[in-house]
């Protein structure tokens, strides 16, 4: 009986911490001397919450950004309060919209490389969950949607 109770408690604890899933992460490749690029991914948080921070050992600074049009000018800004993740709804981080900006890169990122990134999601209960991803690097001019064409 004790083992069943313990197993139930462990399963419940794991379920409360495994609330976020990521799909199709990738990073845009860079050229020599380029010090910034973007991470793009689809994030779904079962309980909802916010993507509040990210980090990578390959970047000195990592920020959550939004790109938007202001008249005829494309503007990019860091989201100081993070990115809302509505419960059960996929949020696409993609070129021209929300993305994770990797700055002060420590090396050139080439197609075929992998970039480790840690995402931190804060749930509605203010508890934080970390999600470790390994994002493949796509060539600078690659079509990120090519994998979705039939």
Let me know the largest β-sheet.
Answer: 10 strands, mixed
Order of helices and strands: HEEEEEEEEEE
Structural class: mainly beta
State the low-pLDDT regions, or none.
3-17, 145-150
Total helices: the number is 1
Query: What is the second-level CATH architecture?
Result: Sandwich
Portion in beta strands:
over 45%
Count of DSSP E strands?
Answer: 10
CATH topology: Immunoglobulin-like
Coarse morphology: globular
Number of individual domains: 1
Mean pLDDT: 86
Indicate the radius of gyration in whole angstroms.
17 Å
The top-level CATH class is Mainly Beta
In which range does the helix fraction lie?
10-25%
- N-to-C span: 52 Å
CATH superfamily: PCu(A)C copper chaperone
Walk me through what this model shows.
The protein has one helix spanning 2-17, and strands at 20-28, 36-45, 49-55, 59-70, 73-78, 83-85, 90-93, 98-105, 114-122, 128-138. It has 150 residues and is mainly beta. It has one domain: Immunoglobulin-like (Sandwich), CATH 2.60.40. Strands 1, 2, 3, 4, 5, 6, 7, 8, 9 and 10 form a 10-stranded mixed β-sheet that branches. Strand 4 (59-70) and strand 5 (73-78) form a beta hairpin. It starts with a helix and ends in a 12-residue tail after the last strand. Residues 3-17 and 145-150 have low confidence and may be disordered.
